[in-house]
Amino acid sequence: MIDVHLISHTHWDREWYLTREQFRLRLVDLVDRVLEMLRADNGYAYFHLDGQTIVLEDYLEIHPENADEIRAHVRSGRLLVGPWYVMPDEFLVSGESLVRNLALGHRIARSFGGSMPVGYLPDLFGHVGQMPQILRQFGLDNAILWRGFGGSQAEYWWESPDGSRVLMMHLPGEGYCNATRIALVPDQMVARTEAVIEREAARSRYGVVLLMNGVDHIEPQDTIPALVSALQARSHRIRHSTLPAYVDAVRAGASSDAASLEVVKGELRSGEQYAPLLPGVLSARTYLKQANARVQNSLERWAEPLSTWAWMLGERYPAAALQYAWKVLLQNHPHDSICGCSIDAVHEENMSRFARAAQVADELIDRASTAIARRVAPAADGKVRVVFFNTSGQARSGVVEGFVDLPFGNAEPHRHVDPEALDAPVVFYDSAATLKRAATAGGQDIPLQVLDITEVVSWVKSRYETPWALHARRVRFAAFVDLPACGFASLDLEVGTAPAAAATGPVTMAERTVENDFLRITVDPTGSAAVFDKRTGKRYESCGELLDEGDVGDEYNYSPPIADRAVTTLDLRNVTVEATVAGPLRGELTVRGSLPVPQAATADRAARADATVDVPVTLRVRLDAGSPCAEWRVTVDNQARDHRLRLLFPTGLRDVEETLSDTAFGTISRPARREPPATIRTEVPVTSYPMQSFVACPVDGGAAVYAEGLNEYEVLLG
Questions:
Q1: Over the Cα atoms of the chain, what is R_g?
Q2: In what order do the strands lie in the sheet with 694-696?
Q3: Confidence (pLDDT) at 701
Q4: Among 356, 368, 404, 674, which is 20 to 30 Å from 591 by CA?
């Protein structure tokens, strides 16, 4: 007999086509209505708040007086919350962020009475291969999902690369809303429901049917108890149910049939003819992705490790501040936020949150590094001791960059400051002070390069004195340093008024050329760069080339116009190439020009306009001593509409069959080509893929590209 579970729920996009505050008021209406219906106890048994707990915070900020009632319903199992804090995108955030999201969701759900024991992933735009492993670590042995997989059956095993396996329930082609409209017309609701039951029963191996009565932002339907009663009267085995009960029923069926259930392995990023994948969000509003990467890196790689080291030395561990920064960051990780597919006002608020989280992270980094550095013995008179940290578990030797502020005057001349009130003494230098040489703490000279000097107002902050403004020379420098794993290295910088003598070193410059022991980079007058690998004798042409194309798609997908015209680096106007940093440790060539880009799409969006606008472009090509990596920094002042701009690098190969890139807690190989199906029913499959920080051609002679906050790549063949 068919076992039917009717699930009442909402899918709550916290911000999307409305702002967070506009949606919050709708959320208040929804939760108020849910509480009324649960309070009435007229047969309406359960409601699901979309697997998130942030909705509880948003609601209770308006109605804190209802907290106890919500807790009572969560404890009784009638109101289901968690396991997530927010419903994220899995590819645009780090693996650590996914873990923190689930951890915070569980923590909040437990404070209300318990987390829903379901790996609920209803609307995420594909799934990372490590998700079964992550869910298992949180005690979840199941997943309910929709996008990213094209199998038509309802039940599968899903396995991570490490062998972790969860029972996967695949939502129907309609997704999480196959029963949204069944009860809207009373005299048709039984027939409508029976049609859905028949369709879903054909998908289930175990005769367990899931009816999802809900969709984005809708309120509960009070006709559900009557519908259930009417169907029971027609001998249907149906109940107003919960997702955990549905999972239990499927698990019971699978317990005697586990060996024959199909196993799906790894990343789920296909099935476009079953449900849209929406891959264009990987590069929509790239500034969001870049801001997110910066904050994630600050928290994961610097604030937390340095704070731990400072705690080991006796400082207080800033647990609450770190939790706050993570929480603010996670509020930008819902799939409609980090994906960049919402209205402008939403993403303006996203940037404000990124700034807040970054400010906390930066302050914690400064506090922890200062606490550690002050335990390092000071340098001799006339020298400044600086400390560089390496929070990685791997030692490294290479060029590091830093700056020191050399005070030369009081910017508040009428103010008196007691030296005893300062946390550390202030030393004044000559108004022409600079750095002359660098040495290790043991006295061994090391290569030093002054990159630039600017005059600034530097603020001295102390616990017992208000900030004190000083005139200072900010000297930005590069040095070649050996950094131990999970440790630090200190340098002594000699200060003087005469600049360091010009030195030769491993990085040399010639006209439009920079080279070190590994690479030679030459930029031609058009702005195109070639990289010669001295180790292999291989030459990579047209590195860092710009490719601008029309885009008449939407916020979710790229779509080329029928008639397009590409604009490339070869079209740059008024090109200049100059050596802006000239060794001996770092060399940099700067290319400036303007790209004549079509102003917008034509009115019918079939082509690009004939009129063009100049888009100023600056490309900085950098090479450091001892590094086999060439670095590009690209700045674009966008003046055009309806286009996408890509940066191209040669693979160094005649043909590429697969790529290797990083993903949450691992790496993944993907095919360079995907053959489209003969008939496109829903969405055209694309050959662009997500990356966290790198993509490589994993064969001899292939190249690798590393990037921060650029999450989409594609291999262009031919």
A1: 30
A2: 666-671, 658-663, 694-696, 704-706
A3: 84
A4: 404
* 412-431 pLDDT tens trace: 999 989 989 999 899 999 99
**Strand 434-440 relative to strand 487-496, pairing:** antiparallel
Query: Which tokens is 551 given?
Result: 């885009």
Q: Kindly state the average pLDDT of the residues 25-46.
A: 96
Number of Cβ atoms within 10 Å of the Cβ of 49: 26
User: Two tokens at 566?
Assistant: 């590409």
Query: Which tokens sit at 435?
Result: 């750095």
In terms of Cα–Cα distance, which of 620, 587, 591 is closest to 514? Answer: 587
Give 47's Cβ-side CA count (13 Å radius): 28
Question: Could you tell me the two tokens for 164?
Answer: 């972790």
| All structural domains of the chain | 3-272 (3.20.110.10), 284-373 (1.20.1270.50), 383-496 (2.60.40.2210), 504-648 (2.70.98.30), 651-718 (no CATH)
The DSSP 8-state label assigned to residue 9 in this structure reads B
Q: Which of 460, 359, 447, 444 is nearest to 405 (CA)?
A: 460
pTM flag (> 0.85):
yes
Helix (H, G, I), strand (E, B) or coil at 390: strand
Instruction: Give strand ranges (E) for 47-104.
Output: 47-48, 79-80
Report pLDDT for 501.
Answer: 66
Structure tokens at 382: 């006339």
3-state secondary structure of 320: helix
Tokens linked to 690: 């997500």
Report which of 44, 34, 104, 103 is spatially closest to residue 70, judged by C-alpha positions.
Answer: 34
